Amino acid sequence: MPAFQEDIDSYFSIYLCYPISKAKLGQVVPVSCERRLQPEIGWGYTVAIWVHITRGKAIISVKPSLFKNLDALFIKQPEPRQLYTLNWRKKIGSLIGSNDTGQLVHVLYCRPEKCRLFQIPECRRLLESDIEAYVKMKLDLYPSCEPDCLVRDIQRNILDGIAFGVFQKGKLVCVSEAPSIGHMQNLVEEVGVDILPEYQGWGYGKAVISAMTKAILHIGRIPLYRCNSRNEASMRLAKEVGYENHSDIIQFREPDKS
User: Fold this and answer.
1) For the whole model, what pTM was predicted?
2) What share of the chain is helix, strand, coil (3-state, %, to 5)?
3) Alpha helices in the chain (DSSP H)
4) Which of 56, 83, 175, 232 has CA 20 to 30 A from 25's CA?
């Protein structure tokens, strides 16, 4: 197995509380995981059930109180590819008393030899002096965010991490960032992108992801990109830059009890 795939597997093994390398081809492995009890760093929500499918094998990581029922559900073990079906996604969601079929997310990665850069003069690396414009853009997109927390996150992303943006007439309209995720920061960086709706379709997203990917590869790390399966434009954009499929995640969040 190429080293970059081993590193990505190790990265997600930490989330799953199980080493992906131990799973065999065609196997579905149920796992009890304390990590499912708390919000992930930077996400703001808890993933009660994490289904991870990669290269013909699958890990299903659940909070400890669900493990017994999960184990019983898999007495007749499905093949990993069957976990994509509506029938199995409903069965898994029923473990948390939900009719939800989970959120399917594609995980992509980029190798140096595959990277295809798309450059425009309006795109540049963000500096400390850009924090105010960065905060304003984020609040325009996510008005419910707490401003002080947002400022701290953005300061960290610019000063300790990597961030690129596109400006139009002095206004920040598109950003890509690699926020701190808490583990394997020296090997893996997750690429995020935000763009103001009125500037979509202008190539700005491709420009900031290109710049971010080049910067991550330059320091010898692996760029990862997560994309909701329903967001075909985002998936297409990443592949135009040179990203390719690695794995799929189906996430189930606890139902809102309020």
Assistant:
1) 0.89
2) 40, 25, 35
3) 3-16, 67-73, 86-93, 131-141, 147-159, 204-218, 232-241
4) 232
The CATH number of whichever domain residue 158 belongs to comes to 3.40.630.30
Euclidean distance between CA atoms 46 and 65, whole angstroms: 15
Looking at residue 79, its pLDDT comes to 94
Residue 254 pLDDT class (50, 70, 90 cuts):
confident
Question: Does residue 129 sit in the same domain as residue 100?
Answer: no
Please state whether 26 falls in left (phi above 0), alpha (psi between -120 and 50) or beta: left
In a domain, residue 55? The reply is yes
Long-range residue pairs from 191-199, CB within 8 A, at least 24 positions apart, any chain? 191/216, 191/223, 191/224, 191/225, 193/234, 194/137, 194/138, 194/141, 196/137, 196/140, 196/141, 199/166, 199/168, 199/173, 199/174
Are 145 and 161 within 8 A, CB to CB? no
**Residue 148: predicted pLDDT:** 81
> Tokens for 117?
């850069």
Residue of 106, 116, 108 lying closest to 243 (CA atoms): 108
Per-residue pLDDT tens digits for 125-175: 999 899 889 889 988 998 888 888 778 878 888 877 889 999 999 899 999
Phi, psi of 207 (to 5 degrees): -65, -45
